[in-house]
Design brief:
single chain; 10 strands; mainly alpha; 53% helix; two-stranded antiparallel sheet; disordered N terminus; 719 residues
Length: 719
């Protein structure tokens, strides 16, 4: 090749231009620079190169080099910039190591992962070294529960991403603990929280809850990258963005996620790599203070007050808060008396300092020296001219306005009604003095539909409100102050006793008024029964008088017929006429027999013809209604045993009225409020909730069994 080139005869200038052209072909132009320089067409390109090959001196187009200061700077993100700064050999090494991970958790390598690897292994080495110090203390707990729930073991690095293995870590938004649970999520996972203990900071309980949550998320997404994104962002948010975009993988959804969630999976991969290859990057040194798990002993408190600082001193630790490392869920270093069962953990090596002391002696020593802090009582709102309740004790002593309202007599009485033909909702509302809306609400009736005959309705009839007015006067005298007075922060014992005595007097007065109302109702029922009994006796007397008058008239008619017969015997020429008269007299003398109903007869017409009332015909013939049937036999006189029937009817009426009065009085005493049956309710649960018996609920609501339906309205009596 070199010899062939020597034989070519070319001028020196042309040789120089040819060398520059070959050099330009060998050096590739950067993509950004190629975009900035406009590309000439083929004709201009030939015209530009041909003179150079021929050696003519023409103007050539010089392109800007990549390192020129005139070139436009390239816009790159931080991850891309870190990628460009990283030596290619290191990138290839990290890529090979990440690709060799034998795990099911995310371990894809890209420029975002490399940026975080550089952060944890070079730029922020102290953070990773603090994590390595706590690794041996918490990772065995994570591995135990991950294996129990059949989850990938490498998910233990998720706690490093969340909290850097600090059990008391708290985020600005309220996430707490090794696994950074929010309050609602902790409640769903049965992690208890109160002012003394927060189980989100308990390593074992929080780890088990995290395993349950991760298992649930994997059952939803079946992809560990999406599981980690849902753990940070929420399962609902990830599902919404999947439905909106139609994407199914994390890296496809990457541009549509918030910055924190986008960096979550790369951070997890970088943490896992940095901890697995901490030796290769020189992160592990002899100067680190590694923590290791210790054998622990336990002490059950069983509701006794306890101070953890005194136990730390009893175990021989100079730091009084040393044992909080083993009990991080304690929000304070003490627990009050009567608290739920709790077990305190401390190192078993401290038993040497405790000696042979028994449990009761140790708990007596660990009692708090001072009273534990109590929550401040809520201050009532201060309104000008209004005196609020001073304390819970005073409110309990006086009963309060709600108790006074419940102690009043019931305002409604429950009345069942069966719809008859021709009745409408408007007529029933006018009859019972209620509104149509109330009837629809009480019986779940749709608006615009007519009532069907035979339908059973429930009507709450309002009781007269004039009687309980006397009982409200003392209550109002106590509840409303005549003149505004300054609000005092604490009520005296004398004032509380006076208010309690006044409340008891009010309750006695209300009970007395209720008893008076009940006696008035009983007296009214007795008067109604007496009026009915008198009406029955009067009707019987009138019937007997009419029967006697009819018999006398029949006797007179018989005598007249006999006289006519005697006169007819004296005149033989008129034979036929006496015979007819004799037949008529025989008919009149015959006793009045049953009457057979003919076509066109009705009870009103027959009563008018025979001079009796319709009620008497119904009573004498024991008719169920005022309708008669063709061929039916009727009597128009009272039977012989009418006196006994009247007495029997009178006694039956009195018994029914007494039972009705007793039932109404009992309902008036037990009337409470209406309960709408909810999903899952049973008659037993409702009775337990309102403090009444199942039998009372069945009697008040006329139930034949213990079954209730969804949406059914039940009248609940007062306990």
């Amino acid at each position: 090749m070199k010899q062939g080139i020597k034989h070519v005869k070319t001028p020196r200038g042309s040789r120089r231009w040819l060398g520059l052209g070959l050099l330009g072909l060998l050096l590739p132009l950067p993509k950004t620079m190629a975009q900035q320089v406009p590309q000439p067409d083929s004709a201009s390109r030939v015209n530009a190169t041909m003179p150079a090959l021929l050696g003519d001196t023409v103007r050539v187009r010089l392109e800007l080099q990549p390192d020129s200061l005139v070139a436009v700077p390239q816009q790159v993100d931080s991850a891309r910039l870190e990628w460009l700064r990283t030596p290619p050999t290191l990138r290839d090494l990290v890529c090979d190591r990440v690709g060799c991970f034998e795990t099911d958790v995310p371990h894809q390598f890209n420029n975002s992962v490399m940026a975080y690897v550089t952060l944890f292994t070079a730029r922020n080495r102290s953070y990773m070294q603090r994590v390595l110090e706590r690794e041996n203390f918490y990772f065995p707990i994570f591995e135990k529960y991950l294996a129990k729930y059949n989850l990938p073991t490498d998910l233990k690095y998720l706690a490093v991403v969340e909290s850097a293995l600090i059990p008391t870590a708290k985020s600005p938004v309220g996430a707490t603990g090794l696994w950074q649970f929010m309050g609602p999520t902790a409640g769903d996972l049965n992690l208890k929280r109160d002012e003394w203990i927060d189980e989100r900071m308990a390593p074992e309980k929080a780890t088990e809850a995290a395993c349950k949550h991760l298992r649930y998320l994997y059952g939803v997404f079946h992809d560990w990258e999406l599981v980690l994104a849902a753990y940070n962002w929420g399962a609902g948010s990830v599902q919404r963005v999947m439905r909106r975009t139609g994407k199914k993988t994390f890296w496809d959804l990457y541009p549509h996620m918030p910055a924190e969630t986008r960096n979550y999976v790369p951070t997890f991969t970088a943490i896992m790599y940095s901890m697995k290859y901490a030796e290769a990057h020189g992160l592990r040194t002899d100067k680190l203070q590694y923590q290791y798990a210790e054998a622990l002993d336990t002490l059950g408190l069983r509701g006794r007050a306890f101070d953890l600082r005194r136990l730390s001193r009893a175990c021989g630790y100079a730091d009084s808060l040393y044992l909080t490392r083993f009990n991080p869920e304690l929000r304070r270093a003490a627990l009050p008396a009567g608290y739920r069962s709790y077990v305190v953990r401390f190192p078993a090596s401290a038993a040497v300092h405790l000696g042979d002391v028994d449990r009761n002696t140790l708990l007596d020593y660990c009692q708090p020296t001072a009273a534990l802090p109590q929550a401040l009582a809520a201050l009532p709102p201060r309104l000008e001219g209004v005196e609020p309740w001073q304390s819970k004790q005073l409110l309990a002593a006086s009963g309060g306005p709600r108790a006074e309202a419940e102690a009043e007599a019931p305002r409604f009485r429950r009345v069942p009604h069966k719809v008859k033909r021709g009745e409408t909702l408007a007529s029933l509302a006018e009859r019972f003095d209620v509104s149509q809306a109330q009837l629809r609400r009480w019986n779940d009736l749709p608006k615009g539909k007519s009532l069907k005959p035979g339908k059973q309705l429930v009507v709450f009839v309002p009781l007269p409100a004039a009687a309980p007015a006397t009982a409200k006067a003392p209550v109002e005298a106590v509840a409303v102050a005549p003149t505004p007075r300054p609000v005092r922060p604490v009520a005296s014992a004398e004032e509380a006793a006076a208010r309690k005595e006044q409340a008891e007097a009010n309750a006695r007065e209300v009970a007395r008024v209720q008893e008076l109302v009940r006696q008035e109702k009983l007296q009214e029922a007795r008067l109604v029964a007496i009026r009915q009994r008198q009406a029955i006796q009067q009707a019987v007397a009138e019937a007997q008088a009419r029967v006697a008058a009819r018999r006398a008239a029949q006797a007179q008619a018989t005598e007249a017929k006999r006289a006519e017969k005697a006169m007819a015997a004296a005149e033989p020429e008129e034979v036929e006429e006496p015979a007819a008269a004799e037949a008529t007299a025989a008919e009149a003398a015959a006793p009045a027999g049953p009457y057979t109903v003919r076509r066109g007869d009705n009870l009103t017409k027959l009563a008018r013809e025979h001079g009796v009332s319709v009620a008497q015909l119904v009573t004498w013939n024991k008719l169920p209604s005022e309708n008669v049937v063709l061929g039916q036999r009727l009597v128009f006189s009272a039977p012989v045993e009418v006196g006994e029937a009247a007495r029997w009817h009178q006694k039956t009426t009195e018994k029914a009225l007494a039972a009705a009065n007793k039932t109404d009085s009992r309902k008036a005493e037990l009337t409470g409020k209406v309960h709408l049956v909810q999903p899952g309710d049973t008659l037993f649960n409702i009775s337990r909730r309102f403090g009444v018996s199942v039998q009372q609920l069945r009697e008040v609501n006329h139930l034949t069994s213990d079954e209730v339906k969804l949406g059914q309205k039940l009248l609940v009596p007062q306990s």
